[in-house]
Amino acid sequence: MTLHIDTNAAPGATAFSETVRGVLDDGVLLVTIDNPPVNATGTDVRAGLLAAVTAAQSDGEVAALVITGAGKTFIGGADIRELDAPPSEPTLPSVVAAIEGSAKPVVAAVNGAALGGGLEVALACHVRVASKGARLGLPEVKLGVVPGAGGTQRLPRLAGIPAAIELIATGRTMGAEEAVERGIVDRIADEAIAQAQATARRLVGTAPRRTGALAVPAADRNAIEGAAGKALARARGQVAPGEAVRLVRAAADLSLSEGLAEERATFLRLRGSPQAAALRHVFFAERAAAKVEGLDGVTPRPVETLGIVGLGLMGAGIATAALDAGFRVIGADVTDEAAAKGRERIATLLDRAVASGKSTAAARDDRLGRLVTAGSLDPLAAADLVIEAVFDDLGVKTELFRRLDTVVRPDAMLATNTSYLNPDHIAAATRRPERVVGLHFFSPANVMRLAEVVRCARTAPDVLATSLGVARKLGKLPIVCGVTEGFIGNRVYSAYRREAEFLVEDGAAPEGIDAAMEAYGFAMGPFAVFDLAGLEIAWARRKRDAASRDRAARYVDIPDRLCEAGRFGQKTGRGWYDYREGKRKVDPDVTALITAARAAKGIVPRNIPADEIVRRLLAAMAAEGEALLNEKIAARASDIDLVMINGYGFPAHKGGPMYAAART
């Protein structure tokens, strides 16, 4: 090799840059990207890859190349920080073009995640060998952009237009087996690098199979339209998915060079858009949320067995998530019959995963083999952490914790899943309140990503650190908060609900408010959500708090009148809307009730435009968020944004209520 030897690299390794090295072995140059933590395609990586491919073309000792990543990641994507800066040379498209244009065979050894630009590098290679655990995808739409280095043009040439639309416009990742089925990966190997090297040697002297030179497979028009329709329906106002659909479809009509030029222009236009800026805010907010004050140097406790008390819908969901994560689970309920029904719920959730292709029968059986259910608390003596998911009543929960205190080991931890109650009062029922923490999951708990981790007054640092680790292992995004009624999410959502009710009194119709928020990007407007969740839950809380309510504060009694009439939402066929014919309809009886309530207060209704509806609801959420920050319940404004996005349906491409308010 003609380039300099890096004294910090392994003996015989050639340094193509600080993060890219090469080792020549029997004619095959193994090019390794070593840019922790995820081997992102930053400037130095791009420069090193380009140098390696360029040098190999004129080096007689090199017959073929293999590109791989150090550690357990191939390339985890772009350096997101670069999206806020002007493009720097060499650009990823030029690197990808050099790889694809190599006269010598280039094989990708996809030894882990190949995401975004990482998959675009792999697509440019002439053959792709993946490890069994590899994950592949083009998730750029989740950052408000489209692939910018050929993803929308090369992927359709391998997988076809319908599959490429689905993968790129949703940002979904896939496993290695699916990638082989779709023609994206050529083979799976236990030792991806060794297999890739052997493959590269076999390819010496053959013409490279360049992805960009392949024809786009013909596809049924209905299949294309179906994939596009589904992707656009999920976009809910986000621009990037629609642009991704357009670019993928164009791959069939444009030459590769024309398609790449259109893709690059679209990428550069979108990266400066408000939606992309908001989604980058969300990306960095998740990283900031992982930094929790007071936990530096704190070692989490080991947790292998989770106990769950209460195997209703919430408890069964938590148990399913725990089994999916590899924990042993002990589920307890009040009777053997209730425990058996809980096991059936868990088995049903696992069966659904098999039926949908997300799991296998063998994996389901393995999970059920790690599940024990019982009609008493005694088996929980073996648990490292016990999570209660019983009825949200202070008396019920405190009595349960008193009993758990005598059952579990002294070193075991206890978590309450309460939504509104004060966990300090629950912890006080135990002899060791320092081992109690709040773990507020969202239903369905095996699906929803958010978990509020409540730091109680006496929660020990290692208990908090352990709870965060468990939540992450469950696949959740844990957000730490302090003790307050409703924590972060329900307090902000209560302000949202209250302002929506004020808007109704002031003259807006429930369906008009819902339409305004759905146009803003919410999947459902507030009143449709209230009906879905059930109006009786909030009614019970209002009745419980009636004695302490500030009589001078504005109070809307329309929801109370609905509940008094037995209108609890979808479950009873009538709530804010009428569902008796199977679909949501405006109910004249509700309109009349609202009119009467306004008249009783002397309110003259006025027309409220959609932009005012959105502005007032966003302002209400942001004001409650500011109160949470001032009270030090939330550590940072971006934590509030994450809670509302991941737990309450706030559109991610708007950045969250705090982000949106700061830019209004």
UniProtKB/TrEMBL annotation:
SUPFAM superfamilies: 6-phosphogluconate dehydrogenase C-terminal domain-like (SSF48179), ClpP/crotonase (SSF52096), NAD(P)-binding Rossmann-fold domains (SSF51735). It holds the Pfam family 3HCDH. Residues 486-579 form the 3-hydroxyacyl-CoA dehydrogenase C-terminal domain. Pathway: Lipid metabolism; fatty acid beta-oxidation. It comes from the Bacteria. It catalyses: a (3S)-3-hydroxyacyl-CoA + NAD(+) = a 3-oxoacyl-CoA + NADH + H(+). Belongs to the enoyl-CoA hydratase/isomerase family. This is 3-hydroxyacyl-CoA dehydrogenase. The lineage of its organism: Bacteria, Pseudomonadati, Pseudomonadota, Alphaproteobacteria, Hyphomicrobiales.
